[in-house]
From TrEMBL, chain A:
Substrates-to-products reaction catalysed: alpha-D-glucosamine 6-phosphate + H2O = beta-D-fructose 6-phosphate + NH4(+)
UniProt xrefs under InterPro entries: Glc/Gal-6P_isomerase, Glucosamine6P_isomerase, Glucosamine6P_isomerase_CS, NagB/RpiA_transferase-like
Protein name: Glucosamine-6-phosphate isomerase
PROSITE patterns assigned to the protein according to its UniProt record, in alphabetical order: GLC_GALNAC_ISOMERASE
Keyword Hydrolase assigned: yes
Subunit structure: Homohexamer.
Molecular function per GO: glucosamine-6-phosphate deaminase activity; identical protein binding; isomerase activity
A Pfam short name: Glucosamine_iso
Chain ranges of the Glucosamine/galactosamine-6-phosphate isomerase domain: 43-198
EC number: 3.5.99.6
Single GO BP term: glucosamine catabolic process
From TrEMBL, chain B:
Residues that bind Zn(2+): 143, 211, 232
UniProt protein name: N-acetylglucosamine-6-phosphate deacetylase
Boundaries of every Amidohydrolase-related domain copy: 62-401
Enzyme's top EC category: hydrolase
Domain of life: Eukaryota
Enzyme Commission number(s) of this protein: 3.5.1.25
Organism: Ptilorrhoa leucosticta
One Pfam family, short name: Amidohydro_1
Similarity comment: Belongs to the metallo-dependent hydrolases superfamily. NagA family.
GO molecular function: metal ion binding; N-acetylglucosamine-6-phosphate deacetylase activity
Record pathway: Amino-sugar metabolism; N-acetylneuraminate degradation
Amino acid sequence: MKLIILENYSQASEWAAKYIRNRIVQFGPGPGRFFTLGLPTGLPRDHPESYHSFMWNNFFKHIDISPENVHILDGNAPDLQAECDTFEEKIKAAGGIELFVGGIGPDGHIAFNEPGSSLVSRTRVKTLAMDTILANARFFDGDLSKVPTMALTVGVGTVMDAREVMILITGAHKAFALYKAIEDGVNHMWTVSAFQQHPNTVFVCDEDATLELKVKTVKYFKGLMLVHNKLVEPLYSMKEMGAERSQSKKPYSD
Amino acid sequence: MPSNKSVSDAPIVQFTNCRILRDHQLQREDLWVREGKILNPEKLFFDEKGSADVQLDCKDSIIAPGFIDVQINGGFGVDFSLATDDFKSGIDLVSQKILSHGVTSFCPTLVTSPPSVYHQILPQISVRNGGAHGAGILGAHLEGPFISKEKKGAHPEHCLRTFEAGAFQDLLATYGSLDCVQIVTLAPEMRRSSEVIQELTKRGICVSLGHSVANLSQAEEAVQHGATFITHLFNAMLPFHHRDPGIVGLLTSDKIPAGRRVFYGMISDGIHTNPAALRIAHRAHPKGLVLVTDAIAGMGLAPGRHTLGQQVVEIDGLNTYIAGTKTLSGSVATMDTCVRHFQEATGCSVETALEAASLHPAQLLGIEHKKGTLDYDSDADFLMLNDSLYVQATYIAGEEVWRQDVSGM
């Protein structure tokens, strides 16, 4: 794994953003060649104000993505298991997830794979832990009774199939989870620990999140920052790569 | 690319690189328009899986809802109170010309006139949508003749009337028809005004207080019976007095029925009201301020003599007086000048200045669900302005109906 330690939340976010940008540019997406970005699923669509609005306002409206290329698990689907299975099919059809970007919960969960989730699980319906319900209350004006108790989520196994995984961890309240994720063993109680067995993982965190790690670990990875920072250096833009490339820059025309 | 839109095949236009006035703030957001209405891009994206057909770069302009002028007596040589043979082409001319001032909807105003004039003119005014032909007509504003002799201003005394005898029936007989009347200005101290106000309000007509010597309690009673507007605050009414604030006192009255708001028109041309008075009114009741032009036929023309109904008016620079007197009669200000002057004089935010000419008049007329805002599903009547609030382009129902000539810049 690569452990990238930045000073604070904004720096960590910026580093992660640049990394994703570089990866997309290097991949050179085009018609029929999708860069499939995986993100943890959100709440059921019962509350369009929450997850879909969040994704629209914070991501989709700022980029020129075609709506057909956006696949969000539908919590209102009549047959939830079928919805999950279809989702897995869609991932395969798109060529698999190129890069999965997620965070972890204070209980070390990735997506909604709560403690005790199988490390080889696939996309499925999951009952949420109380911790998660409390954390989600902010989308429902703090009214706990309104927070959904079930959610559709990609499984640990689903994320493990991604060619690369990036986990963002910031804040002191996540420090223990980070410790469990990278310095302790692989354990289904801390599902993020599964990525110790993934060939390409990047953990991006801020200083506060390293509070529970060994000084030795932190010093080692900080020492590698010179090398790791090369990963986020600006690349030549795709337009400069040649006429054919720039024309195929978007998988759709105006 | 043909988008997979399940609701409609109409083209979708996305205005980018702009700051739009939404939720009382200038936000850096794109404006999406389809079929003449503001479209919700999030619903388009998730529900219809649609995307824009055309993207227009607005070069960092400000996009604001189109201005609504609820008091305009004419312009460009046209006088709405003059019954001519080609009245229709006159109103068409004005509605087309004011597009360049940023006005997308207006209420043609008739000053005090003999009944014959109303009977001739009113049937020729019809409520209609705006478009490339000109700004939309929301309905007529009848200023008089049921106003006070002492505060007639530029209105001709011999045409003033009362409705003591037959109350509402008198009013109806005078005007002939109220079919497309949106606003009536009257003096509430007149006997039986309460009945008249109630009847007008029942018919959805906005009652405005003006050209009156009413004291505060008479004004409050009028509001309780349904009046919601004050015609050109400060002008043609008793001045504010600390023991009887008169109509001006409505701005801070505690007798306004719950859930209602009193709006007040202000001609912010720098002449009708001293900037200090404008500031006092604005600070006392910022949410009620409605910018109006009260423009007359001479607006848009060279200085000289023009008519205003039964009167002759002389224009000298920005001043417009009854010929041979110092009685103000209307103005030659344009709506965008008023917006700029208002913003400068009060030092208010750009958002506040723009809302005083768009959101507030829409709220006054109860049409804010479709005009006066850039909310989703509203009519796509909007303006592109630069940072100094000069109108660069005017759009009605999503179509560009006027654009500033970019000559040599």
